[in-house]
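Backbone-to-sequence.
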């Protein structure tokens, strides 16, 4: 198996889905589903429970064989890539599954080392340990978490450990399935900021399934809505609000949607005020500095 780079998709869409159909027996989950994910964006994916968000993610990463349709990831048709050991694009993405999916018998560091062992067996033990430790710290866990087992971690720490493993191979694409579910509001907000910082500093494209309206408002560039077995709308939240689909209206204009919107507006105001105060302080410091420098110059 090798991590050879695959040719990139022409244009700026690392993920393209066309005419996707998934069914379990007679139960059709997706039909005629299309989706483009733009390079460098955080795309939120929303939809009622059971509408097929996780199945869509599993299809994109090749874990679910679709009944029809085409999926292209980073320039490779995903079904071809799965059959071709020489061009393995799995090392170009990282995944945080809905349940965390950590190996319970391995420590956090050993969990992070799993993809490193699989894709880079030539890396020696010491370097692999160092990379794993770095990813654990990058995900906001303390260094002592490296030696802990998943059962010894809180839910939030487990999410961070899963994120550390998802980042193990320096991915271009990050798939997150409900990363803030089950976290307290402060922990969820911190996790949102972590994802945003990582996306900005590492230049990631993020496919983020969530029910968390605060996450959608705070960090998502666009949101794709799944209903009626397909993606019924993709856009910024104001663009979605301009549509008249009942589910979208109910979701974003319901009490929780409005509360999230108010919180986001309040946060933006606070940031604005903080920036103005900081600017004021800089100006005052500068004036004070000019006053002290001026006599010194006069005396020279
Ligand atoms: N392996 C499977 N076999 C049979 N049915 C399945 C399988 N996986 C998923 N389904 C069904 O497909 C539908 C979509 O499931 P999926 O897990 O994608 O929902 P979801 O949108 O992620 O929901 P949630 O928000 O609750 O996580 C559900 O009705 C589920 O029961
Ligand atoms: Mg799901």
């Amino acid at each position: 198996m090798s991590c050879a780079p695959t040719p990139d998709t022409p244009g700026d869409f690392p993920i393209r889905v066309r005419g996707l159909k998934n069914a379990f027996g007679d139960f059709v989950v997706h039909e005629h589903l299309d989706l483009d994910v733009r390079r460098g964006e955080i795309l939120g994916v929303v939809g009622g429970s059971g509408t097929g968000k996780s199945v869509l993610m599993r299809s994109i990463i090749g874990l679910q064989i679709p009944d029809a349709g085409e999926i292209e990831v980073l320039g490779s048709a995903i079904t071809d890539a799965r059959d071709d050991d020489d061009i393995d694009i799995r090392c170009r993405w990282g995944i945080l599954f809905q349940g965390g999916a950590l190996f319970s018998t391995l420590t956090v560091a050993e969990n992070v080392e799993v993809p490193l062992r699989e894709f880079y067996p030539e890396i020696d033990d010491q370097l692999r340990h160092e990379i794993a430790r770095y990813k654990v710290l990058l995900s906001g866990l303390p260094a002592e978490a490296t030696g802990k087992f998943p059962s010894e971690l809180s839910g939030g720490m487990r999410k961070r450990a899963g994120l550390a493993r998802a980042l193990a191979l320096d991915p271009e694409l990050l798939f997150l399935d409900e990363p803030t579910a089950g976290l307290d509001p402060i922990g969820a907000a911190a996790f949102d900021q972590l994802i945003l910082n990582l996306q900005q500093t590492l230049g990631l494209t993020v496919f983020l399934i969530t029910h968390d309206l605060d996450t959608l408002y705070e960090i998502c560039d666009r949101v794709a809505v799944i209903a009626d077995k397909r993606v019924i709308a993709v856009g910024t939240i104001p663009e979605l609000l301009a549509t008249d689909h009942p589910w979208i209206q109910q979701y974003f204009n319901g009490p929780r949607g409005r509360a999230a919107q108010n919180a986001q507006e309040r946060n933006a105001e606070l940031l604005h005020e903080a920036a103005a105060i900081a600017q004021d302080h800089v100006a005052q410091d500068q004036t004070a500095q000019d006053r002290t420098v001026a006599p010194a110059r006069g005396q020279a």
